[in-house]
Design brief:
Layout (H helix, E strand, L loop, with lengths): L3 H11 L4 H7 L6 H7 L7 H11 L3 H6 L6 H6 L4 E7 L3 E2 L4 E2 L8 E7 H4 L9 E6 L12 E5 L11 E6 L2 E10 L4 E5 L10 E4 L6 E11 L4
Parallel strand pairs: 1-5, 2-5
Antiparallel strand pairs: 1-4, 3-8, 5-6, 6-11, 7-8, 7-11, 8-9, 9-10
Length: about 220
């Protein structure tokens, strides 16, 4: 007997999450799949099951085969270990930079993220969560994945760090290179497709260039 449907609902409620919160962490735009899983209509694929187990910080075997609501030891472990972070509702482009004229307070919501997913960055109030739109970084961050962005001093950035940047209001995510010899900053895609090209900003025209932060964590969606 599989306890997945019962456990999923129990874990979600225990962590104070709505169905849409979990759906978004899994890279989905609506809560319909989560609702159907909890109703026992069907079970997601193995990769998604692993993602769910990771989000809640439990073994996959426990998620599937144990009645967690009846397990006293599990209840002790499930003391709330999530924290709130700013969530940018406009996704960041992993393709051609997206036009975002200005970020307003209403562009942000609050999202709960388990500490286990952010590791050493758990509880860092400067972290911003958003999701990625596009395939120019799909070797490491597939389309739909969630990322954690931490503001960082540009002097501390290293070649190939993944950053979120804007140039005249256009936001994107790429690998960073400061080409001092040729006096330019290069933002390089990391894609399985060769259709994406470098985004190059010469020092002399970089007055509107801003690096918002370094990507310190990604929650990868394989489905």
């Amino acid at each position: 007997m599989s306890y997945f449907a019962k456990n999923l609902k129990y874990l979600r409620i225990q962590r104070g999450m709505e169905q849409i919160d979990l759906a978004q962490m899994l890279g989905r735009k609506s809560s319909s799949s989560v609702s159907e899983w909890e109703a026992g209509k069907y079970t997601p694929k193995a990769g998604v099951l692993m993602d769910i187990a990771t989000i809640f910080g439990i073994p996959l075997s426990s998620l599937m085969d144990s009645d967690l609501s009846a397990n006293e030891d599990t209840n002790k472990l499930l003391i709330r270990t999530t924290k709130s972070y700013s969530y940018l509702t406009s996704s960041i482009s992993a393709g051609i930079p997206d036009n975002i004229d200005s970020l307003k307070k209403e562009d942000f919501e609050t999202i709960e993220v388990p500490d286990i997913l952010l590791g050493k960055y758990a509880g860092d109030p400067s972290i911003i969560i958003t999701n990625v739109n596009g395939d120019s970084m799909n070797r490491c961050i597939p389309h739909g994945s969630f990322i954690g962005i931490k503001p960082v001093d540009i002097s501390k950035l290293k070649t190939n760090d993944i950053v979120v940047f804007s140039d005249s209001g256009s936001f994107s995510i790429k690998r960073y290179t400061n080409d001092k010899k040729n006096e330019r900053v290069i933002f390089r895609p990391d894609s399985f497709s060769d259709s994406f090209v470098d985004y190059v900003v010469p020092y002399e025209t970089a007055e509107n260039l801003k690096i918002w932060g370094k990507v310190v964590v990604s929650i990868v969606n394989y489905d």
